[in-house]
Amino acid sequence: MQTVKIQRDLLLEKLRLNRKSHRDLFLKAQEGYRKKVIEELDQMLAEARGGKSIRRAISLPEPQDHTPDYDRIIAMLEMSVDDQIQILAGEFDMYVMDNWTWKPMAMSVNTRLLAER
Questions:
Q1: Per-residue model confidence (pLDDT) at position 114
Q2: Is 98 in contact with 69 (CB distance < 8 Å)?
Q3: Of 17, 68, 77, 112, which sits most exposed with the smallest number of CB within 10 A?
Q4: If you write DSSP's letter for every residue of 20-52 in order, what string do you get?
Q5: What angle do CA 77, 86, 2 make, to 5 degrees?
Q6: Residue 55: its pLDDT value, please?
Q7: What pLDDT sits at residue 71?
Q8: What is the pTM of this model?
Q9: Spatial distance between the Cα atoms of 70 and 86, rounded to a whole number of angstroms
């Protein structure tokens, strides 16, 4: 099967749920990121004050926020005049199954930062 027709309201509901899950994880990861950055900056400051070599870069991966990807599709669906939406298998995989191409990397970074909170 290459395409499927879905009730717009059901698709919107699923997208909003997936968006919330992604956004919640991102915000928690951002907290962990801020904590780690502050720790790194404190360490760099202590090293500089102690006469050690001065590091000028922090090598932490930033949390990934793909909320705009969800927002764009949600806005399109909200503005649609159709009650049924036909989507491709790849779109179904992203919108319903929440398997976006960026998802593995975002999950890896965000869950790692979450664990470091």
A1: 80
A2: no
A3: 68
A4: HHHHHHHHHHHHHHHHHHHHHHHHHHHHHHTTP
A5: 135
A6: 84
A7: 98
A8: 0.88
A9: 17
Q: How far apart are CA 37 and CA 25, in angstroms?
A: 18
How far apart are alpha carbons 107 and 109 in whole angstroms?
Answer: 6
Lookup: tokens for 74: 């949600």
Q: What is the tens place of the pLDDT at every residue in 38-51?
A: 999 999 999 999 99
Instruction: Yes or no: say if 110 and 64 are a contact pair by the CB < 8 Å rule.
Output: yes
Q: Find where tokens 């090293």 sit.
A: 47
Q: Which helix (H) or strand (E) holds 7?
A: strand 3-7
**Structure tokens, 82:** 């159709």
Angstrom CA distances, 12 to 53, 66, 69, 73, 103, stand at: 53, 17, 13, 9, 19
Q: Which residues of the chain have pLDDT under 70?
A: 115-117
8-49 and 67-79 are packed helices; what angle lies between their axes, rounded to 10 degrees?
Answer: 160
Angle at 76 (CA atoms; ends 28, 88), nearest 5 degrees: 90
